[in-house]
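In this supplementary section we document a worked example of the pipeline. Step one takes a protein sequence of length 634 as its only input; no multiple sequence alignment statistics are reported here. Step two produces a three-dimensional model, which step three serialises into structure tokens for compact storage. The input and output of this example are shown verbatim.
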Amino acid sequence: MSGEGFDWHGFLGRWQAEWVPRADEDEDEGGEEAVSVLGRAGAGEAVIAAAEERLGLRLPESYRKFLAVSDGWHVDETAGVYRLGGAADIDWFRDPYDLSPLYEENLGDRPRQEDALLAGMWRRAVRLETDSDMSHALLDPGDAGRDGEWALYVHKGWSGEPPDRYPSFRAYMEAMYRDFHRDRAERADFVNATTRAQDARVEEARRLALRGRCEEALPLLEEASSYGRPRSAVLLNQLHHVRAPRSTRDYGDLVADPRYLPELLPVQAVEPGRGEWRLGGDDHWLGMMVARGVERETAEAVLSAVRDGTHLYAPPGPWGRAVAEAREAARWGMTDEAWRTLRGALPSWKAPGRSLIAPIGLLADPVLGPLVTPERGREILATPRSGESGPAPEPVPDLDPPGLAWLAERAAKPQPHDGYRGVWVEGADPAGLPALIGEEGAELSAPTDPRRASRDAPGPHEREGVELWEDRAVVAVGRTAESWAFAFEVTSHHRLNGRFRSPATAASAAGRAVVVWRDPTSRSAEEQPTAFHLSVAEQGDELYAFTARGTEFERSGAIPDALDPARLFRPEDTEQEREARVLAALHTELGLSLPRFALDQGRLRTFTTRSWTRAPREGETFGYAYVTTGRPRT
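The serialised model returned by step three reads:
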């Protein structure tokens, strides 16, 4: 970025014409008079040449062109450098604070180029400022670009931070001009050609974003935001937030506006709701919301609902009806169907005001929020909405693979709790599963993380009235695309033993039922092969079952050829290959499937089953052990 072709007369003249004091400057103390003229008359070529002769090198073009137009400048940066001197004022910096050794000692044996340049900058830089707050503007002849421009470093001595780097003097001055605008953006009387042009860009970007042309809107908003223009930052935050749904963004005072509060306040509550707020806890967050104009009771209620998973994103109109329909599908694990519902309704989303360009509130919904992946976020932004028109984007592919084969993929990286077990009931209402196989009084929970629910379930020793021999599972509940209701424990450390009691017969009172159990991976498959169990029942009677341990089988009933364990568990195959084959057969023969995304990353209802093991008979023994790690449960 050289000075060639850059209109310094126009640039500096515009800056001078637009100058007004900042809102925090005291005009009564002569602040306005003192800097009413920002620059000085340009330096002649002889003056610039004399400075170069004194320094012993030619100055970079952008700085020479600047000096020829204005021999110095009142930068007016909020903190740091205040005034740049003229050609006669500049001189070598000479590292008066011995900063070079501090940076050199951290270079290591193979330093990055930028670190090596910075370490040497202090001794070879040219100092430009004549008035500052313990800060220095330093041009480094040793850090030159292909265009011959020298990098400019601003060192704020009071900050303790490394200096800010700009690729050229021109880049630095353009950044300071944007800072000048940003510092005055809140002044009602700060209106000029630049502010009007940037505000027009914000409005253009808003329309482009609503037409699904996010990539065109982004650079317009980034530029307007660098000038501090109203609405630019909040619109830009929305685009970045939807593209990175798990990130956090600050929407400032907009959260208190009644038009936007239902969308934005829950999103602001997500971070403290997850326990990730590190700036003083709930009271600090609530205080921030109150300072922005939100009623404390409202902020407390939203935070509580987000934290306990009961918050519901409920916008009005056709979009709101689609959200409710999608939530109902996602609650039962049908997340791809839920997304297709949302996708179809996106054009009907209406912005409640000019400061909202995307359905941000969707991200805070505990059931629907996890469905918005970065790819789907981009699909949202590429979809015309709020009355605007444009081409529809290419649909993002579904996330759930068909069938059950994905369960076998986990065997490639064995984990301590990588076992699983589940029950499928054909044509049943999943809400009725607790009555079929649940413990006494079992009820469906609110949608929750099924992995965490299973992992955090109390053991028999922690529950009153539960025998130590009992093996009750916390299972996630849902419905498959093939209309099977399922109850599935996705992370299990329990092993199949001789007292196993299949829940298939109890579950089959509502229709054909299938039970699958896979042991967690053994440390030594040769010494203790991973057990795999299948049982199928109908109307209270078991039709067939088998348990495979390696290539040894226990079997009962008339097992279909397609599910014959001797065919599925081949001696020459690995355990993972055997598991993949039997899971594929269960999908082909019985139509079983599971929603991977909902079980791994979504939110599902759960309940606790009856024991999967029977009581020990007379003469039988059993062992029970538990390990307590970390802090005990309270």
